Automatic annotation (TrEMBL), chains A, B:
Lineage: Bacteria, Pseudomonadati, Pseudomonadota, Gammaproteobacteria, Enterobacterales
Residues bound to Mg(2+) 5: 215
GO biological process, one term: thiamine diphosphate biosynthetic process
Highest rank taxon of the organism: Bacteria
Known catalytic reactions: thiamine phosphate + ATP = thiamine diphosphate + ADP
Descriptive protein name: Thiamine-monophosphate kinase
Organism: Sodalis ligni
This protein's pathway: Cofactor biosynthesis; thiamine diphosphate biosynthesis; thiamine diphosphate from thiamine phosphate: step 1/1
Residue sites binding Mg(2+) 1 per the record: 46-47, 122
Keyword Transferase: yes
Amino acid sequence: MACGEFDLIARYFDRVKSARRDVVMGIGDDCALLSVDEKRLIAVSTDTLVSGIHFLPTISPADLGYKSLAVNLSDLAAMGADPAWLSLALTLPEMDENWLAAFSDSLFEQLDYYGMQLVGGDTTRGPLSLTLTIQGLIPAGRAILRSGARIGDWIYVTGTLGDSAAGLAVLQDRLMVAAAPDRQYLLERHLRPQPRILQGQALRDLASSAIDLSDGLISDLRHILDRSDCGARIHLEDLPYSTALRRQVSPDQALRWALSGGEDYELCFTVPEINRGALDVALGHAGADFTCIGQIGPRSEGLQLLRDNQPVDLDWHGYDHFSRE
Amino acid sequence: MACGEFDLIARYFDRVKSARRDVVMGIGDDCALLSVDEKRLIAVSTDTLVSGIHFLPTISPADLGYKSLAVNLSDLAAMGADPAWLSLALTLPEMDENWLAAFSDSLFEQLDYYGMQLVGGDTTRGPLSLTLTIQGLIPAGRAILRSGARIGDWIYVTGTLGDSAAGLAVLQDRLMVAAAPDRQYLLERHLRPQPRILQGQALRDLASSAIDLSDGLISDLRHILDRSDCGARIHLEDLPYSTALRRQVSPDQALRWALSGGEDYELCFTVPEINRGALDVALGHAGADFTCIGQIGPRSEGLQLLRDNQPVDLDWHGYDHFSRE
């Protein structure tokens, strides 16, 4: 995910000279969608993780192996795709066998869990970074795009929000958590996010749009609104928090992290009224927690944050994603 | 392309826990081959280029945009694939609009030439590096693998060898070339290698194996021999050199660069006796230069370098690829 000024860079690459007929979706969603035959689409997504920017230099190789793939899987989840193939480009400052063994064990454990195969890649010397290109398969016509939200659709998120930002704060000594179980839970949520693959697949015929929450609810929901040409009302009192987060931080801090903390890798999706019953059944079968947090409205109303149905004006400093509002 | 000790790293990733039936070729060839329907295969290849390792930090953005894609296309050429889709991960130390404009113009010019589309990627801040994942299409059953060479097959290369290494030497002031046309030619061969896409496609039904020359003839041919379980005899007097290279360096230097200089991005391929006539016609139609340089032999004979049919024992220092012999 590009962010901040690096969004600008994407503009240099968002041009199509030769529009191929087999490219159903190019740049602009969680994945590109490629058509090879009439039955299935291939979903492709690329993520780069650079040491010191996307992960702390102190991260363990096992956590890095896990998280780099989980982040990439999350993009597939947001389209409703079945994970299939991975290409891994790994740049390392030096040959370190212990590091490589731990990293690759962790990576392959997750690949195996999802029935994926590593099909290629490249290993080079240089400052630590990784680029993963993941591919998945989706039955033709059933991919969930960012652009399908319509006025009146209900807005949902899976799981709980803000935990990952709290876990990062623990790692950086910005948040002190004495209770070991809460500390462990928040760290896990940051280091071992669960890609919502099953949920994404269950949403294929039910959700009108979806995105994964990498930058924070406000920033990511805005992508849905932009692509769908809609507005939204979010009921702040309905945002789902974990028990650990509620116990360890103030309600105000929890709200900030839920809205703009980033890296939760939950799904945010919209569902038409007519599909709400089926949604309860489908996600119930998947054993997945999900919460309705608002409703899609007309573009003219923008993105409104409400508490007890009253507009809330949040004035926060230091939250870039939000301040771009 | 991994090289040197970084070959070791690949071993950590060359394991298959869940072997997917749709993976026709995993790690171990120029591209992975993925099967989506019964008619076509997808060829996928990933290359990372790191500043100071894969390209000089002084390279122009236009040359970098060209070469990074050309190198990636060369892997498709070696399988006989039709170029289709590109994912680009670009890590930049800073936002530089002039750099980005020149880089992306150059990239899109070549994408357009090959009828390709950029379908996704990622832009991040960090030390300059690029990872490209390229995908192409091949009719099912017609991909050219490294593993198909058989005893008696003839060994060919496209174009001329050693020019790229000479061009790099010019850039690094290790080779002085006063004649402007020769200098320009050698620089172009290093900075603007021509991926042999048309040649690869023409070879689909004719060649028994192929690889692209990224590390140098000896090192790359050895991959064919390893995968095909064969040996080879190379006739050194038959190696093709450009007029510029012959004019500017000694025969001994030209030979070294041809065998182990690397980055020529020509194809090395093998052809059964029965296909030699058809080869002349097919590559003649493509307007491509190609030269027979030897013949595949039994594994027990290893890789033999001959001059006037006599074994040549080359004792060079400082040529890693060759010294690994």
